[in-house]
Amino acid sequence: MAGAVGRPQLARPNRGQLFVSVNGRPVDAPLDVPSLSEQSISAVEGNLTALLASAEATGAGPTFVQVAAPIIEEQYATSKRWLELVRGENKDHIVRRGLHDHEALEKEESPPMITPLYCESVRMLSLLAHILGKEKEADEYDRLAENIRKAHIENFHAPGTGVVASGIQSVQAFALFLNMLPAEERPAALAHLVEDITDKHNGHLTTGIFGTRYMLDVLSREGRAEVVNDMVNLRGFPGWAG
């Protein structure tokens, strides 16, 4: 390994962040949790706290990170090769081909949704590098992720409106869930998503296999759970109530 892995420490500095620090450095997503519901955050926090406390109190062998590190290191090289291939084919940081919100009822070109998935993949690789003590590579991928986000903003966001690309539910959900928007644009982006659901589609969803999960999560944690409740209880197609 590229560095000794110390005992992880847990901290939650605010509602949207749950850090496990390794070697004194906070580990980023997926333990950075703005994308989780409050219930899920509490469950994760409680489970991690109990595991870390038990390991410290009993001295019961290696921590989760220490156990996982060899597996992460083995997979890191493969993940890095894949990511660098994608990076080399998309030098402007915009990915133009690939599966995005499959089975969505409203269609959109690939780039506005594939690019956020690429950005999230880079963030995940940065996390793996942090865990392995590869700080230079972690910092490089942190910068790459931010450059991808900036390219997405420049190419697909209408400043001051919160609208992303065509503004359909799928695109809005991808941008909100995967944290592609400037902070000041999030309220407008959420408002546009809600309006599309409630006004344009009479409470129905038009999202596909990824966008549905992203949309339900975003609406729930951004204080619009009533929109989710109405949607899942709405009769007629598309929906769940038949």
Fraction of residues in β-strands: 5-15%
- Label the structural class: mainly alpha
Strand order of the largest sheet: 1-2-3
Number of strands: 5
- Using the CA coordinates, give the radius of gyration: 20 Å
Mean pLDDT: 80
Short précis:
The chain is mainly alpha-helical. It is 55% helix and 7% strand.
Map the helices and strands.
Blueprint: E1 9-14, E2 17-22, E3 25-26, H1 38-58, H2 64-89, H3 111-131, H4 135-156, E4 157-158, E5 163-164, H5 169-177, H6 186-200, H7 211-221, H8 225-232
Antiparallel strand pairs: 1-2, 2-3, 4-5
How would you describe this structure to a colleague?
The chain is mainly α and 242 residues long. It has a domain at 157-232. The chain has 8 helices and 5 strands. The chain has helices spanning 38-58, 64-89, 111-131, 135-156, 169-177, 186-200, 211-221, 225-232, and strands spanning 9-14, 17-22, 25-26, 157-158, 163-164. The strands form 2 sheets. A 3-stranded antiparallel β-sheet has the order 1-2-3, with helices on one face. A hairpin with a 4-residue loop joins strand 4 (157-158) and strand 5. It starts with 8 loop residues before the first strand and ends in a 10-residue tail after the last helix. The model is unreliable at 1-8, 14-18 and 26-41 (pLDDT under 50).
